[in-house]
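Per reviewer request, we include the raw input and output of the structure prediction for the construct analysed in the revised manuscript.
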Amino acid sequence: MSHIVFVTTEVSPWVPGGAGAVVARLRRQLVARGDRVTVLLVADAATDLPDDVRALGGVPGFEARSELAADSLASLVAEDSPDLIEFQDFDGLAFTALVHRPHTGIDTIPVQVRFHGPADLIFESIGIDPPGIAIARSMERATFAMADRVVVPSPAIGRLVEQRYSVTPDRIAVGPPPVPEPRRLELRPAATPVIAAFGRLGEMKGSHDLIAAAVPVLREQPDFRLVLIGEDGWSATAERPMREWLQAEAIPRDVAHRVEFTGRLVDDDLDRRLAEVWAVVVASRFESFSLAAHEARGVGLPVIVPELPAFEGILDESTGALVYDSTRGGLTAALRTMIGDPDLRQRLASAPTPLYGDPLAAYTTDIAVRHPRSQAGLATAAVQALERDRPSSPAAGSGRAQRALQFLPAPVARAAVMILPRSIKDRFRSVADWRVESERRERAAREDAVSERIAAGEFVQLDRPRVSVVIPCFDQGRFLDGAIRSVFEQTMGSFEVIVVDDGSTDPETIGVIDRLDSPRTRVIRQDNRGLSAARNAGISEARGELVVPLDADDELTPEFLDRLVAELDANPDAALACCWARLFGDIDAVWAPRRYNPYQLLLSNSIVGCVVLRRAAWEAVGGYDETMRNGNEDWELWVRLMDAGWGVTEVNEPLFRYRKHGISMSVETESRFEEGRSELVGRHRDLYSPQRLSALKRHHYPLLSVLVPEGFDEDSLQQEHLDDAEILIVAGGEALGNAVRAARGKYVVHWTGVDGTEPGTLDRLAGALELDPDLGAVTTTADDPIVLVRRWSLLDPDGPATARAVAIAGTGRQQLSTGGFPDPAWIVAQAIDGLPVQRQRPEEDGRLPRWATT
């Protein structure tokens, strides 16, 4: 039995709508199958709801509803973690939850989005662009990008989602909505022509198009009646109820008495009206599926449908539908044909209904949860896109306010944004942020300091500099001076700068590069060939034995070269020295990647791209791969260096300044992490073969480290089938701590005094830890249990600390506890220099990942 959560703004009958009908039917079918369902309804609803439907209330605004959904989902997940979460696609309801997946608690839970019909496409079909829709459009696009899977009603809609929203085919699954079982009515067609439209009135539903198309036929056929069955909707164009607009503006008086609006009909009333009609017409401008059309076919009525992806491959003459070309003229012709051709009507009515497939298939297949790197990159891109798409209205006088702030003394300028009345202060801050101004002043002071040192002749030309800093630049001239200045601020003096203009087209950038006249600085110009080629070109011209690939929008801290060159000198087998990053720009934080591990490097990159690299190592493996122009070129180089036998050494300090701004190439690279890894696997199939990966894993990152006492009989472990484990001998007083720090496994167990176990005990304990990344340890249920502990939790007091017993037999004399063996190399402060630390989780999958074995 699975626990499935639906997050929606509609669920019939409490909040009607097409999506609400789908959710209601899926809910009933899943419960009948034996699953448990919870519906989070982001809307006001009646108080007599069933226990599995929770009404959260209605709030105005797309972002507010999305935040309410995320908060409520987080509370539910904390109570009872579900197996699958499904969001509606429209209004960007999933946006906040997916942007903040770790905070919401769904970073390891599969999340799928069902395509009902995004507001983006609905308003486009109507032909209007109302205020605020840009926010919904941005949130919807991000939702499709961030979801683990998008469920579409048909292959044709899948192709639409792939092309329109750039969703890769592997993340699209066909899951038809649950169509009611066909129930043939006793049809008694009226003696005179009656055509019915079935469903809510609306512009997207083409109600006005149907009226316009039907008027000529109504005038030609004096006994023809048009019946519109369904609840009233709203006209976004006319800003009034749809029925009122149609009756007042669209239906001529001479035919008005033959156009009937019934309102919403159900059960016997609906059946009575459908039994007399000749055909049902769906005149929609956009549909994702149209339950109304399929219900009409289910009772044996012919239907008229437009040529839309929603009907492609499902409804045509072979399944009882007359398809027209989506124009009003085409619909007029279709109405005439349906009325005037009784043989066609009979043939369509007797045609078999479409075959839809199992609507519950989307709730049985495995879903690959996006990698944390992809989650983070996609979330960053989503937030930045929303800010870009958000309508803005700059405050009047912003230029004057900003200029005034620049020329005020620092204490006065700071006060200007702190002590003014709230209404003025908020407006002033919006155009004259003190933080921005203080950064401008600091930058100016640094520029002056470097200029003074250059003027004093401090930077004489060097024939053999120790380090060559290579700065590729493509249209990033506004940042280039800052990158170069950071090199001249180094406490180590033996360097040169090589700027590679990679075919810039931006006049500002070209001008900045033309004006470069700093000492020890050379410029190389080439046609645009991408970042890898630009780096290779610069390194090829470098005079130093060590090189630093520095992007034009990033900077070095003054100690970068000193600290990393010394570290590399102390480790002659290492190809490179790397460090942590100080994020600046849109984010102020420290990024602490996990410690280097050759096997884990194959799964995801943990090395910040700006390193001190031995030129000899770069030459030995052939440099950066110039065919990689979509990111991950540094990761691919690190993998080749590792495969060639080179090592990596680390300095756990934030010595590199990594600018986070806009939808940069780094953000795009993170957001397409899985695709990038697939590209890497395709280029290095031998290295990524299951055999090579398994061997590397056993050596560098086994699932288990089993600590045994000296003289231990290893035959007693045979029933554990330890094919992915290392065994470490514990001998002497301080040997346990030394063994823990020497362990390489993801999980560690002290296997001493063990009794009463069943075969595979350790594998089952490890499986329990793999399922819950927030657990620090699991134990057997004995009074003196066997304890399997996460190595991270042993070495870092801030690692996951919760322990949980699982229903597995076995006793032991364990001496391991979370946080019990602190190791400075594993401990990461929560803040550095007043900045929060964003830490990369120091673990990867404990078992060989599925993608590596398929």
